[in-house]
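The data are quoted verbatim for reference:
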Amino acid sequence: MRGRWNQGLPIGLARSRRFGSRGFTLIELCAVVLIITVFAAVALPTAVTQLRDRRVQEAARRFGMVYREARMRALGRGSAVLVRIVGGTMTVLEAQVGVAIDGDVGCTALPVSSCLNTDWNAVTARRVVDGFSVAASGEFSNLTVAMSDSQDNSVPNLDICFTPMGRAFERRAVVTGTPFTPIANAYVATLSRPGSARPRQVVLMPNGSARLFTP
């Protein structure tokens, strides 16, 4: 028994209505696929740029976090903690005794509180506890870090040392014998990546805080 919608209609016309409502033609499907492809091609460069921007943002966030945690480690552990930045690579070092005391080798890892009396280039006098590196590959590939001071002078190498008392010292040469001075500058790390629309700047403050800016 036929439905009410085709009652009174010729059989051929009713069949044509049923068969004509089944779907799209091949030409219509190809047109839809072509439109989607065009929109995807237009949107892809924007999506790639946004992805690179997010990675630069994440790298800047990590850079600032490592700096802040270095000072917190000095206060919490009672040891001098050095943040060394060379060529965009950040390494956090903690001062330690480094030698056995009364034959007890377990004393070698005991913390040392002095920034000024520690030979930070002697492997036994410090240990690596944290850091941030611009990787040659991976999520931070092709990322560059440029350091400068508050007068916009380039600073390729920098040591910033925090004591357990909250004081901070600096030196711009990372060789043994270079004296530390009380930190008097805020330093700026500019992180950028080719193809990214905006670099990020991390301002490293003398009190151990770090602020993120977008120029």
Remarks:
- Residues 26-213 form a domain with the minor pseudopilin epsh fold fold (CATH 3.55.40.10).
- Residues 21 and 149 are 72 Å apart (CA to CA).
- Residues 26-77 form the longest helix (52 residues).
